[in-house]
Design goal:
31% of the residues lie in helices and 23% in strands. It is of the alpha+beta class. InterPro entries: RecG_C_sf, Schlafen_AlbA_2_dom, Schlafen_AlbA_2_dom_sf.
Length: 388
């Protein structure tokens, strides 16, 4: 970090990863809440000696050493900040005034300040200690395990729909005639896809939640995940309710087909050239948004997933363990795996091929906007031609 970069941070103002603290004569006490929230979210930059109006007030020269010492002592005290953090404040002279810069990295554990858990939302620090859902999501982001890998030792393969497994096997073999699934039994297929695992606590084997979501009978899914559904809505004439609707509560393989059919029913099939190649813009966009909402949502949440088609756009919403916030930069965006076991099966049968961001750039899509929020993911795809 240098003086020019510090000035750019000040000029751009406070946001989800930038915070200003005046701290002219003493250290602002709420700076530790910000350190905690940055560490729990995606990291960030703290500037001491700058007020909320982006004015450089500076830290008194006589107080700089005291402020830095007080800060470093506090964040290394496990009774105050847990886990203790090792941060190195830097001092810069900007416009003849002293500004202290602190870079807070993203942490690998949940951070607490005085026993309270703080998270970052846009320009503010939020105390989420008493919000069980937000705390759960924070822990889920920090740990390396996945909710859909939950093992059910007391459930066997009979809990699954054999016809859906056979359909999946046929789809895989149609793409690759030498696919290893062709001659496997249902159990062998599930093991090869890591859909039968061992519960590390009980040491017993069982099918996973991912297996139930992918291949389960409808009543089986409802017995382990009653909140599971995708609400497909067509809303053009009746803006307050809907013109057509399909509430999809079946397994993910059949859910994919039903959501695609719903989109095909209500969107135009246009002649579109991608370079010199004729492409089916409607189906390419539908394939990517449907596979994304099914493969990458947070299934632990009760937030209802939706695919809404209106007269100018397709909007898709689902619960999400976000690893960022705000509008996504389509040039720099990199996907983060949410449910690898589900994505693997989708990939084997050809339901995941490209990238939603790439598909948004096909010629018929005149504008695309994808927004990643703290608790759910929202995608909006606009086109002047698909909705005529």
């Amino acid at each position: 970090m240098n003086s020019k970069e510090i000035k750019n941070l000040i000029q751009n103002g406070e946001k989800i990863d930038v915070e200003f603290k005046e701290s002219k004569n003493s250290l602002s006490k709420d700076v530790f809440d910000t350190v905690c929230s940055f560490n729990n979210r995606n990291g960030g930059h703290i500037l001491l000696g700058v007020n909320d109006k982006r004015e450089i007030v500076g830290v008194s020269k006589e107080k700089v050493d005291k402020v830095i010492k007080e800060f470093t002592t506090a964040i290394n005290n496990s009774q105050k900040m847990y886990p203790p953090l090792y941060l190195l404040p830097e001092t810069f002279e900007i416009e003849g005034k002293q500004v202290i810069y602190i870079r807070v990295p993203e942490g690998y554990q949940v951070c607490r300040h005085n026993g309270r858990i703080w998270d970052r939302s846009y320009e503010g620090d939020i105390n989420i200690t008493d919000h069980s859902e937000l705390v759960y999501k924070l822990y889920a982001r920090k740990q390396g395990s996945y909710f859909v890998n939950k093992v059910y030792p007391n459930l066997d393969i009979d809990f699954l729909d054999a016809s859906v497994i056979a359909k999946t096997k046929k789809m895989a073999v149609s793409r690759n005639k030498n696919h290893v699934w062709e001659n496997m039994s249902n159990e062998e297929l599930l093991r090869s896809a890591n859909l039968i695992l061992t519960d590390l606590e009980t040491k017993r084997e069982g099918i996973t939640l991912a297996a139930i979501l992918l291949f389960g009978k409808d009543n089986s899914i409802m017995s382990v995940l009653p909140q599971h559904k995708t609400d497909a809505i067509f809303r053009v004439e009746n803006k307050d309710r809907y013109d057509d609707r399909d509430v999809v509560i079946t397994n993910l393989i059949d859910s994919y087909d039903r959501l695609i059919e719903f989109g095909q029913k209500h969107l135009n099939d246009l002649f579109v050239l991608d370079g010199i190649v004729n492409v089916n813009a409607r189906d390419r966009i539908l394939r990517e948004i449907v596979s994304n909402t099914l493969a990458h949502r947070d299934y632990s949440s009760g937030y209802p997933a939706k695919m809404i088609i209106d007269d100018e756009k397709i909007t898709v919403e689902n619960s999400n363990l976000a690893h960022g916030m705000g509008a996504l930069d389509l040039q720099k965006f990199e996907p983060f795996p949410k449910n690898p076991a589900i994505s693997k099966v989708f990939r084997e049968i050809g339901l995941v091929r490209m990238n939603l961001v790439q598909e948004c750039e096909i010629p018929t899509s005149t504008h695309s906007f994808i927004q990643d929020k703290t608790r759910y993911l929202r995608r909006e795809i606009y086109s002047e031609r698909l909705f005529l």
